[in-house]
Amino acid sequence: MLGYWSDIERTFSTVDELRxxxxxxLGNVDAAxxxxxxxxxxxxxxxxxxxxxxxxxxxxxxxxxxxxxLKQDELTLAGExxxxxxxxxxxxxxxxxxxxxxxxxxxxxxxxxxxxxxxxKDGVLTVRLPKVPEVQPRKISVxxx
Amino acid sequence: MAxxxxxxxxxxxxxxxxxxxxxxxxxxxxxxxxxxxxIRPTSAPAVDVYENDDEILVVADMPGARADSVAIKLEKExxxxxxxxxxxxxxxxxxxxxxxxEYRRAFLVPRGIDATQITAEMSQGVLQVHMPKSAAxxxxxxxxKSRH
Lengths: 145, 148
Description:
The structure holds 2 protein chains of 2 kinds.
Chain A: H1 2-26, E1 43-47, E2 51-57, E3 66-71, E4 74-81, E5 90-94, E6 99-106, E7 117-121, E8 124-130
Chain B: E1 8-10, E2 42-43, E3 47-51, E4 55-61, E5 71-75, E6 78-85, E7 92-95, E8 101-108, E9 119-123, E10 126-132
Parallel strand pairs in B: 1-5, 2-8
Antiparallel strand pairs in B: 3-4, 4-10, 5-6, 6-8, 9-10
């Protein structure tokens, strides 16, 4: 049975090492995908003219484990990521780690706190923060005289 | 929570990945620059491996990947898992580095796995691959008869 398990370990190490080298060589490694405790969850912020979008990777996280707060121009994503060992299973490898997290983002524009929406889909959290009307882009029509 | 089953193919063909936006000349934008979608950066998802008496369970984090983009291939003794993530967000990126990527990971399947019985499910960006052990390697208790 010992040989049986070293099979899996050996596989991971060779294939992963090859992958690392290939990606290094090709220069397209998605380094930011390697989330550490300090940058969990991996988050991006977008500006869509009329709203700000805060998008965070939270695979396997339930909405009940999430706590989103907006305090003036600071948005905080906090929560807990649980990685329970399935009942009756023994662990051979555990790269997915449970963690408690809290990340705060200072928003670049004023947003309408009442219109905030949050959606969790395919393990990705999207918080939509509509901008207040004053900061939304306006088109000024020019009249030819 | 919706759970869908990605398709599993079991063949000996060379593994082929299909990109939804793979290179065709018609898709190249005018003006000479290549579409950035053309080459997807790969990303190795974090993987857990568990075992009980009946199965080996592989769990992989693939946030943003839809179940229908997951491909699981068993080629000889190697299991390949891959999925595409499409960041279909309009707007200007202010912070962070989210982008389209292809999740990919491969590993050897130990002896004693019933290849035809492998199942997988995707839920909230987490892929679970169940690899049932064949009867031959499952632990058995042997009854001892006492004789007088």
